[in-house]
Every structure is written in C-alpha cells, then in structure tokens.
Amino acid sequence: MIHTEFVLPVYATKILDKTYQHKAPSNIALVKYWGKKENQIPANPSVSFTLTKSYTETSVKLFPKKNTTTYSFDFYFENKLNESFRAKIHAYFERIAVYLPFLSEFHFEIRSENSFPHSSGIASSASGMAALSICLMQIERDFCPEISDDFFWKKASFLARLGSGSACRSMLSDLVVWGEHTDIQGSSNLYGIPYPDKVHSVFAQYQDTILLIDKGQKQVSSSQGHNLMHGHPFAKERFEQAHSNISKLKKALHQGDIESFIQIIESEALTLHAMMLTSLPYFILMKPNTLSVIERIWRFRKETKIPVCFTLDAGANVHLLYPKQYEEEGITFIKRELVAFCENGEYICDEVGATL
Ligand code: DP6
C-alpha cells in the first residue's frame, strides 16, 4: 500500500553539489516492539528513550549515475568500502523509491560511522537507518524547499521505519512513541512521534549504562524473531499487554512514580525474552552473565533502596537505568559488582536526551 501523503508531486532532478550529513542516536525501548505485520506495521505500539552518546553519523553525496542499474551507490563503513550492507541498502532503496523518486536518478556515496565500537553487540540498524533517512530527506528538501519541518521529520521517521522498525524512534525527541495507542494523541503505526504528554523531571537525563555482556553476533536476528510472533501461542495477550503497559507507563512518567516505572520496564524486558523462549523454534539470547547481572541489580536495589533497574534488547547486553541524581552510586555499583560480568570489562555510559 502506498501512502500518498508522503509522495511529493513535483520533482527536479538536477545534481546538487553538496554533501548531506546527519547524526542519529540509538534508542532503547521501554515498551517493546516485537512482532510486525506487512510493510513494517508494528503489531503493538512501543515507547523508547533516545540516547545521547551512542549514535551513527552518516553522509550522502550525489554523483551522476555511473551505470544502468536501478540503484547505484557505494557504501563505506568507517571509511572502508563495505559490501556486506549492500543487499540491505538495496532492499531499502527499493522499498522507499516510490516516496523518493530521485533514488534512481543518481549515484550515491554513503559514508557511515558509529560512536560506539562496531563489535559492541549494540545494534546500529536503528541509528544507521535513521541517519540515512534524515540525509535522504535533506536531499528531498533541496528539491522541494517548500516542505515544512513537520513534514520533514514525519517523513524521515516514516522512511526510517521502512528500513528498520525501531529506527523510526531514533530521532524527534528524548522519548518517542511509535504505533497507534488510544491514550497517546497523534500516535501512528507509520512513524514515530515525540511523546506528547507530561514527563516528571526525575526522568530527565536518565542514566543508561550499557553492560556489554556478549559482543558476538546474535544467532537469531530481530527480523527472524519478529516473524516468530506469527502464530505464537501468546501473541494476542502480549500485544494487549503492551497497550496496557503504555497506559500504565504514561501515568508513572507523569507522576514520577519510579517504583511503577521499574515494574513496567523490567516486566517488558523479561516478556520480550519470554516470547523468544516460547517461540517455535525457541531460542535464548540471554547469557548466564545476563542473569547474574539481573540478580545483582535486584539485590542492590533491595539493600540500598537506590532505584536502579534493567532493560534488555534482543541480545545478551543489559541496560542499567537509573535517575541522574544517582549517577555516582550507579557507577560505583557497576565497577564494584557488575564489570566482572562484562566481556573484557566493557560498558558504555550513556544518558537519555533530545536528538543530536
Ligand atoms: C527488541 O527494529 O531491529 O529492539 O523492524 O525487523 O528491523 P526490524 O526490527 P528491529 O526490532 C527491534 C526489537 C527490539 C525492541 C524495540 O526496539 O522496540
């Protein structure tokens, strides 16, 4: 299905002698997207924190087209020509070409690099697809200067979603919602929106320390995992639970109710992995050290009453979340008790913040 509101009627195709460049941040979901319908429509709404220190920076330069292939581009990752992403970018161009007709008119030199080590086990598809989509929108804006900022960001998020679902949340604001939800005004399955409701100041600059438990390649990709939600015995209940967790989260965010926040966030993380454990074929992405870290977090929280909690993405790494006011205690705890469970003792100190 083509969403005609994102197809602009007039198009010039002159070469623009400019390099387009943008940074897009990583995000960590509080309420998880796991399961999708056709055309990257999420099976349930999700909400994420935007991170400030983990990001992808991408540049795109236009050249006259070199050959007759439909899409012509070179992709450089960390300054080296990279063929392994070629198929993914080609598929992405194919999917979005109806919305950006200039894609078949030029040769593109795309250069991308991450602020975090490539081998950290942190997925860069969200920040990478978001950064590329924003660059493509900058080009579109040069062809059609009359487009509004509102249209620019809506379409950037719309395009990013077509590259990777969670990428549509890697822009816009420090808290982003993607997927229709009755309690979130303006929410859409087609793009992310800045979280529109009031958020208590305790959540400002919330700390996210990413504990790198396992930096290896995952055995099951997110795409495969999403697919396994089709016909999953608990899918219906899971999708309903995500809706209800967003309503609960909205209240907790408004009131600064960290206790409820923790309960929702940890339950979401464990449910995500419970879906993996109960898929057919079933799979486990957590590692023994993931569980050891979770146990330590629970013990520390009980003993000290400091509200540290965790979330997980589709992998073994643990995101330790805590309020800015406990930054010092958080780091001391990590160094004393958690670093031993991290691969080569590595972790990344990040925090929640607006887009770069
Ligand atoms: C567990 O966005 O990576 O991180 O749309 O297939 O590219 P695709 O999937 P992706 O899935 C992210 C899953 C998650 C939860 C989340 O970020 O909401």
UniProtKB/TrEMBL annotation:
Domain Mvd1 C-terminal, chain residue ranges per copy: 210-338
Location of the Diphosphomevalonate decarboxylase-like N-terminal domain: 24-183
GO molecular function: ATP binding; carboxy-lyase activity
Protein's GO biological process: isoprenoid biosynthetic process
InterPro entries for this protein: GHMP_kinase_C_sf, Mev_decarb, MVD-like_N, Mvd1_C, Ribosomal_Su5_D2-typ_SF, Ribsml_uS5_D2-typ_fold_subgr
Record key words, sorted: ATP-binding, Lipid biosynthesis, Lipid metabolism, Lyase, Nucleotide-binding
Source organism superkingdom: Bacteria
Coiled coil: none
Gene3D superfamilies: 3.30.230.10, GHMP kinase, C-terminal domain
Pfam families attached to this UniProt entry: MDD_C (PF18376), MVD-like_N (PF22700)
Entry-linked PANTHER family: DIPHOSPHOMEVALONATE DECARBOXYLASE (PTHR10977:SF3)
Protein's name in the database: Diphosphomevalonate decarboxylase
UniProt source species: Capnocytophaga catalasegens
